Sequence to fold (93 residues):
Amino acid sequence: MSKRLFISLLVLTLATIVVVFSLVFGKNSIRQQRRLTREITSYQTTIDSLQKIIDERNVTIQRLRSDSLYIEEQLRVKYGMSRQGERVFQFIK
Fold:
């Protein structure tokens, strides 16, 4: 085997080792990329659930601004309020 071929193979082998090492253990390694992907997925799930809550609250706000029957229902159910002169009966189980 010629000296030139040996040096070429040695350089190629070392370069391959460096590339494999950086893929497995480096800053942007495959493990790091997988961890980041899982983290992003987790954050996206959290964002989606929080967006759903925001949407529900926006619907409630719109109803409170525009629907007087909904306001009355909420006052009766949550706060036990009634109209003036109205009798309220509470059933006990």
